[in-house]
Amino acid sequence: MSEADTETVPGRGTIWVEKYRPQTLDEVAGHDDITARLQSYIEKNDLPNLLFSGQAGIGKTTSAVAIAKELYGDDWQTHFLELNASDERGIDVVRDQIKNFARHDPGAVDFQIIFLDEADSLTNDAQAALRRTMEQFSDKTRFIMSCNYSSKIIDPIQSRCAVFRFGPIPDDAVAERIHYIANEEGIETTEDGVGALVYAADGDMRKAINALQAAAVMGETVDEESVFVITSTARPEDIKEMVKDALEGDFTRARSKLDELITERGMAGGDIIDQLHRSVWEFGLDDDDAVRVLERVGEADYRITEGANERVQLEAMLASLALN
Protein backbone atom coordinates (compact mmCIF):
# COMPACT_ATOMS: atom_id res chain seq x y z
CA MET A 1 0.00 0.00 0.00
CA SER A 2 1.41 3.38 -0.98
CA GLU A 3 1.78 6.31 1.39
CA ALA A 4 -1.04 8.12 -0.41
CA ASP A 5 -3.34 5.12 0.06
CA THR A 6 -2.38 4.85 3.70
CA GLU A 7 -3.49 8.43 4.33
CA THR A 8 -7.02 7.61 3.10
CA VAL A 9 -7.48 4.66 5.45
CA PRO A 10 -8.99 5.67 8.81
CA GLY A 11 -6.77 4.78 11.74
CA ARG A 12 -3.55 4.51 9.77
CA GLY A 13 -0.42 6.66 10.04
CA THR A 14 -0.76 8.29 13.44
CA ILE A 15 -1.68 7.27 16.97
CA TRP A 16 -4.84 9.16 17.80
CA VAL A 17 -4.14 9.23 21.53
CA GLU A 18 -1.12 11.42 20.80
CA LYS A 19 -2.64 13.28 17.87
CA TYR A 20 -5.60 14.42 19.99
CA ARG A 21 -3.82 14.78 23.31
CA PRO A 22 -4.94 18.06 24.97
CA GLN A 23 -2.32 20.78 24.77
CA THR A 24 -3.80 23.08 27.42
CA LEU A 25 -5.62 22.57 30.71
CA ASP A 26 -8.82 23.93 29.16
CA GLU A 27 -8.81 20.99 26.75
CA VAL A 28 -8.54 18.34 29.49
CA ALA A 29 -11.92 16.61 29.63
CA GLY A 30 -13.93 15.72 32.68
CA HIS A 31 -11.93 17.45 35.42
CA ASP A 32 -13.16 21.03 35.39
CA ASP A 33 -12.69 21.60 39.14
CA ILE A 34 -9.12 20.31 39.09
CA THR A 35 -8.07 22.18 35.96
CA ALA A 36 -9.56 25.41 37.31
CA ARG A 37 -7.43 25.14 40.46
CA LEU A 38 -4.32 24.29 38.43
CA GLN A 39 -5.02 27.22 36.13
CA SER A 40 -5.07 29.58 39.11
CA TYR A 41 -1.58 28.39 40.11
CA ILE A 42 -0.33 29.14 36.60
CA GLU A 43 -1.92 32.60 36.50
CA LYS A 44 -0.20 33.49 39.77
CA ASN A 45 3.05 31.79 38.68
CA ASP A 46 3.02 30.10 42.07
CA LEU A 47 3.08 26.35 41.61
CA PRO A 48 3.38 24.06 44.67
CA ASN A 49 4.61 20.49 44.48
CA LEU A 50 1.72 18.43 43.08
CA LEU A 51 0.58 14.83 43.49
CA PHE A 52 -1.92 13.45 40.97
CA SER A 53 -3.57 10.14 41.82
CA GLY A 54 -6.12 8.03 39.98
CA GLN A 55 -6.56 5.21 37.50
CA ALA A 56 -4.87 5.06 34.11
CA GLY A 57 -6.00 7.09 31.12
CA ILE A 58 -7.78 9.91 32.93
CA GLY A 59 -5.49 12.87 32.25
CA LYS A 60 -2.77 12.92 34.93
CA THR A 61 0.21 12.99 32.55
CA THR A 62 -1.62 15.23 30.09
CA SER A 63 -2.33 17.77 32.86
CA ALA A 64 1.32 17.79 33.96
CA VAL A 65 2.59 18.43 30.43
CA ALA A 66 -0.10 21.07 29.84
CA ILE A 67 1.06 22.92 32.96
CA ALA A 68 4.61 23.03 31.60
CA LYS A 69 3.45 24.22 28.17
CA GLU A 70 1.34 27.00 29.67
CA LEU A 71 4.11 28.13 32.03
CA TYR A 72 7.04 28.00 29.61
CA GLY A 73 5.54 28.20 26.11
CA ASP A 74 7.70 26.88 23.27
CA ASP A 75 10.67 26.38 25.63
CA TRP A 76 8.76 24.02 27.93
CA GLN A 77 11.01 21.02 27.25
CA THR A 78 14.05 22.99 28.46
CA HIS A 79 12.55 23.46 31.90
CA PHE A 80 10.65 20.16 32.20
CA LEU A 81 12.11 16.74 33.04
CA GLU A 82 9.82 13.73 32.66
CA LEU A 83 10.78 10.39 34.17
CA ASN A 84 8.83 7.15 34.42
CA ALA A 85 9.48 5.81 37.89
CA SER A 86 8.37 2.30 36.92
CA ASP A 87 11.39 2.08 34.58
CA GLU A 88 13.93 3.46 37.04
CA ARG A 89 12.59 2.96 40.53
CA GLY A 90 15.69 2.76 42.70
CA ILE A 91 17.57 5.31 44.75
CA ASP A 92 20.14 5.89 41.98
CA VAL A 93 17.61 7.69 39.77
CA VAL A 94 17.01 10.17 42.60
CA ARG A 95 20.69 10.64 43.33
CA ASP A 96 21.66 11.06 39.67
CA GLN A 97 19.04 12.22 37.15
CA ILE A 98 16.64 13.99 39.50
CA LYS A 99 19.25 15.69 41.66
CA ASN A 100 21.34 16.77 38.67
CA PHE A 101 18.35 18.42 37.00
CA ALA A 102 17.03 19.92 40.26
CA ARG A 103 20.32 21.73 40.99
CA HIS A 104 20.38 23.46 37.59
CA ASP A 105 19.79 27.19 37.49
CA PRO A 106 16.31 27.65 35.94
CA GLY A 107 17.55 30.75 34.17
CA ALA A 108 14.88 33.20 33.02
CA VAL A 109 12.03 31.32 34.73
CA ASP A 110 11.32 31.24 38.46
CA PHE A 111 11.42 27.46 38.74
CA GLN A 112 11.70 24.29 36.69
CA ILE A 113 9.52 21.17 36.88
CA ILE A 114 10.38 17.51 37.41
CA PHE A 115 7.53 15.16 36.53
CA LEU A 116 7.64 11.65 37.99
CA ASP A 117 5.12 9.38 36.32
CA GLU A 118 4.03 6.25 38.22
CA ALA A 119 5.75 7.55 41.34
CA ASP A 120 4.14 4.80 43.43
CA SER A 121 6.65 2.42 41.81
CA LEU A 122 9.56 4.12 43.62
CA THR A 123 11.08 2.11 46.43
CA ASN A 124 10.80 3.46 49.98
CA ASP A 125 14.51 4.30 49.97
CA ALA A 126 14.12 6.23 46.73
CA GLN A 127 11.12 8.10 48.14
CA ALA A 128 13.07 9.00 51.27
CA ALA A 129 15.89 10.39 49.11
CA LEU A 130 13.34 12.23 46.98
CA ARG A 131 11.85 13.90 50.03
CA ARG A 132 15.25 15.33 50.92
CA THR A 133 15.78 16.53 47.33
CA MET A 134 12.40 18.27 47.37
CA GLU A 135 13.47 20.18 50.49
CA GLN A 136 16.97 20.97 49.28
CA PHE A 137 15.97 22.50 45.93
CA SER A 138 12.57 23.95 46.79
CA ASP A 139 13.72 27.43 45.75
CA LYS A 140 14.13 26.55 42.06
CA THR A 141 12.44 23.20 41.38
CA ARG A 142 8.85 21.98 41.61
CA PHE A 143 7.83 18.34 41.53
CA ILE A 144 4.73 16.87 39.94
CA MET A 145 4.11 13.21 40.71
CA SER A 146 1.44 10.94 39.32
CA CYS A 147 0.41 7.59 40.75
CA ASN A 148 -2.39 5.06 40.68
CA TYR A 149 -2.37 4.58 44.45
CA SER A 150 -1.50 7.54 46.65
CA SER A 151 -1.31 5.21 49.67
CA LYS A 152 1.99 3.90 48.26
CA ILE A 153 3.54 7.37 48.50
CA ILE A 154 5.17 7.97 51.89
CA ASP A 155 3.48 10.52 54.15
CA PRO A 156 6.41 13.00 54.21
CA ILE A 157 6.11 13.41 50.42
CA GLN A 158 2.31 13.62 50.47
CA SER A 159 2.46 16.35 53.11
CA ARG A 160 4.76 18.40 50.85
CA CYS A 161 2.34 18.25 47.90
CA ALA A 162 -1.04 19.59 46.93
CA VAL A 163 -2.91 16.35 46.27
CA PHE A 164 -5.34 16.10 43.35
CA ARG A 165 -7.44 12.95 43.07
CA PHE A 166 -8.53 12.35 39.48
CA GLY A 167 -11.71 10.31 39.18
CA PRO A 168 -12.80 8.33 36.12
CA ILE A 169 -13.80 10.58 33.22
CA PRO A 170 -17.60 10.95 33.06
CA ASP A 171 -19.35 9.00 30.30
CA ASP A 172 -20.70 12.12 28.61
CA ALA A 173 -17.19 13.63 28.37
CA VAL A 174 -15.85 10.40 26.84
CA ALA A 175 -18.72 10.29 24.35
CA GLU A 176 -18.19 13.94 23.40
CA ARG A 177 -14.51 13.33 22.69
CA ILE A 178 -15.29 10.22 20.64
CA HIS A 179 -17.76 12.18 18.51
CA TYR A 180 -15.19 14.96 18.02
CA ILE A 181 -12.40 12.61 16.91
CA ALA A 182 -14.71 10.60 14.67
CA ASN A 183 -15.83 13.81 12.98
CA GLU A 184 -12.24 15.01 12.54
CA GLU A 185 -11.19 11.68 11.03
CA GLY A 186 -14.29 11.26 8.88
CA ILE A 187 -15.37 8.12 10.73
CA GLU A 188 -19.00 7.03 10.72
CA THR A 189 -20.23 5.87 14.12
CA THR A 190 -23.54 4.58 15.40
CA GLU A 191 -24.98 5.62 18.75
CA ASP A 192 -24.74 1.99 19.88
CA GLY A 193 -21.09 2.00 18.82
CA VAL A 194 -20.32 5.13 20.82
CA GLY A 195 -22.20 3.68 23.79
CA ALA A 196 -20.15 0.49 23.54
CA LEU A 197 -16.91 2.52 23.46
CA VAL A 198 -17.99 4.43 26.55
CA TYR A 199 -18.94 1.21 28.35
CA ALA A 200 -15.70 -0.56 27.42
CA ALA A 201 -13.57 2.44 28.44
CA ASP A 202 -15.08 2.67 31.94
CA GLY A 203 -13.79 6.20 32.45
CA ASP A 204 -10.45 5.63 30.66
CA MET A 205 -10.20 8.14 27.79
CA ARG A 206 -7.04 6.56 26.38
CA LYS A 207 -8.75 3.18 26.16
CA ALA A 208 -11.77 4.74 24.41
CA ILE A 209 -9.65 6.51 21.79
CA ASN A 210 -7.46 3.46 21.11
CA ALA A 211 -10.58 1.32 20.72
CA LEU A 212 -12.11 3.86 18.33
CA GLN A 213 -8.98 3.85 16.18
CA ALA A 214 -8.80 0.05 16.14
CA ALA A 215 -12.49 -0.29 15.29
CA ALA A 216 -12.18 2.32 12.52
CA VAL A 217 -9.63 0.14 10.73
CA MET A 218 -11.99 -2.87 10.75
CA GLY A 219 -14.76 -1.38 8.64
CA GLU A 220 -16.53 1.68 7.34
CA THR A 221 -18.76 2.09 10.39
CA VAL A 222 -17.86 1.83 14.07
CA ASP A 223 -20.79 -0.04 15.55
CA GLU A 224 -21.48 -1.95 18.75
CA GLU A 225 -20.40 -5.32 17.40
CA SER A 226 -17.00 -4.11 16.14
CA VAL A 227 -16.26 -2.36 19.45
CA PHE A 228 -17.04 -5.39 21.60
CA VAL A 229 -14.90 -7.59 19.33
CA ILE A 230 -11.95 -5.18 19.33
CA THR A 231 -11.99 -4.58 23.10
CA SER A 232 -12.71 -8.22 24.06
CA THR A 233 -15.59 -6.92 26.14
CA ALA A 234 -18.78 -8.84 26.87
CA ARG A 235 -22.14 -7.27 26.25
CA PRO A 236 -23.69 -6.27 29.59
CA GLU A 237 -26.71 -8.45 28.85
CA ASP A 238 -24.46 -11.54 28.42
CA ILE A 239 -22.93 -11.01 31.86
CA LYS A 240 -26.39 -10.41 33.31
CA GLU A 241 -27.81 -13.64 31.83
CA MET A 242 -24.87 -15.68 33.13
CA VAL A 243 -25.34 -14.38 36.67
CA LYS A 244 -29.12 -14.80 36.63
CA ASP A 245 -28.83 -18.39 35.34
CA ALA A 246 -26.49 -19.18 38.24
CA LEU A 247 -28.76 -17.52 40.81
CA GLU A 248 -31.70 -19.52 39.46
CA GLY A 249 -29.76 -22.76 39.99
CA ASP A 250 -29.01 -23.49 36.31
CA PHE A 251 -25.27 -23.99 36.69
CA THR A 252 -24.89 -25.84 33.37
CA ARG A 253 -26.31 -22.94 31.37
CA ALA A 254 -24.32 -20.35 33.34
CA ARG A 255 -21.13 -22.34 32.79
CA SER A 256 -21.87 -22.55 29.06
CA LYS A 257 -22.11 -18.75 28.87
CA LEU A 258 -18.84 -18.42 30.81
CA ASP A 259 -17.17 -20.84 28.40
CA GLU A 260 -18.36 -18.72 25.46
CA LEU A 261 -16.87 -15.56 27.00
CA ILE A 262 -13.50 -17.19 27.67
CA THR A 263 -13.14 -19.46 24.63
CA GLU A 264 -14.93 -17.66 21.81
CA ARG A 265 -14.44 -14.03 22.83
CA GLY A 266 -11.02 -14.50 24.41
CA MET A 267 -11.84 -12.63 27.60
CA ALA A 268 -9.49 -12.89 30.56
CA GLY A 269 -10.87 -13.93 33.93
CA GLY A 270 -9.89 -10.62 35.47
CA ASP A 271 -11.84 -8.72 32.80
CA ILE A 272 -14.96 -10.79 33.48
CA ILE A 273 -14.60 -10.10 37.19
CA ASP A 274 -14.23 -6.35 36.53
CA GLN A 275 -17.36 -6.28 34.36
CA LEU A 276 -19.30 -8.23 36.95
CA HIS A 277 -18.25 -5.90 39.72
CA ARG A 278 -19.17 -2.66 37.98
CA SER A 279 -22.43 -3.99 36.52
CA VAL A 280 -23.96 -5.97 39.38
CA TRP A 281 -26.17 -3.10 40.56
CA GLU A 282 -27.51 -2.70 37.02
CA PHE A 283 -28.84 -6.26 36.90
CA GLY A 284 -32.04 -5.50 38.80
CA LEU A 285 -31.16 -8.02 41.53
CA ASP A 286 -32.64 -7.75 44.99
CA ASP A 287 -30.26 -6.71 47.76
CA ASP A 288 -29.66 -10.24 49.08
CA ASP A 289 -28.69 -11.59 45.65
CA ALA A 290 -26.51 -8.55 44.90
CA VAL A 291 -24.65 -9.01 48.18
CA ARG A 292 -24.12 -12.71 47.44
CA VAL A 293 -22.75 -11.94 43.99
CA LEU A 294 -20.37 -9.27 45.28
CA GLU A 295 -19.11 -11.56 48.04
CA ARG A 296 -18.33 -14.33 45.53
CA VAL A 297 -16.81 -11.85 43.06
CA GLY A 298 -14.47 -10.53 45.76
CA GLU A 299 -13.35 -14.03 46.71
CA ALA A 300 -12.75 -15.07 43.09
CA ASP A 301 -10.87 -11.83 42.37
CA TYR A 302 -8.55 -12.37 45.34
CA ARG A 303 -7.77 -15.95 44.35
CA ILE A 304 -7.15 -15.06 40.71
CA THR A 305 -4.88 -12.19 41.78
CA GLU A 306 -2.92 -14.62 43.95
CA GLY A 307 -2.33 -16.85 40.92
CA ALA A 308 -5.17 -19.37 40.98
CA ASN A 309 -6.61 -20.76 37.73
CA GLU A 310 -9.06 -18.24 36.29
CA ARG A 311 -11.53 -20.69 34.78
CA VAL A 312 -11.64 -22.86 37.89
CA GLN A 313 -12.30 -19.86 40.13
CA LEU A 314 -15.01 -18.41 37.88
CA GLU A 315 -16.76 -21.77 37.62
CA ALA A 316 -16.51 -22.18 41.40
CA MET A 317 -18.08 -18.72 41.79
CA LEU A 318 -21.01 -19.67 39.54
CA ALA A 319 -21.41 -23.01 41.33
CA SER A 320 -21.52 -21.26 44.70
CA LEU A 321 -24.21 -18.88 43.44
CA ALA A 322 -26.21 -21.80 42.02
CA LEU A 323 -26.07 -23.83 45.26
CA ASN A 324 -27.32 -21.11 47.62
Automatic annotation (TrEMBL):
Annotated Gene Ontology cellular component terms: DNA replication factor C complex
Keywords: ATP-binding, DNA replication, Nucleotide-binding
Domain AAA+ ATPase: 46-170
Gene Ontology biological process: DNA repair; DNA-templated DNA replication
Chain sites annotated for binding ATP: G54, Q55, A56, G57, I58, G59, K60, T61
GO MF assignments: ATP binding; ATP hydrolysis activity; DNA binding; DNA clamp loader activity
CDD domains xrefs: AAA (cd00009), HLD_clamp_RFC (cd18140)
SMART domains membership: AAA
Superkingdom, taxonomy of origin: Archaea
Keyword ATP-binding part of the UniProt annotation: yes
Described purpose of this protein according to its UniProt entry: Part of the RFC clamp loader complex which loads the PCNA sliding clamp onto DNA.
Subunit structure: Heteromultimer composed of small subunits (RfcS) and large subunits (RfcL).
Family to which the UniProt record says this protein belongs: Belongs to the activator 1 small subunits family. RfcS subfamily.
Protein name (database record): Replication factor C small subunit
Chain's gene name: rfcS
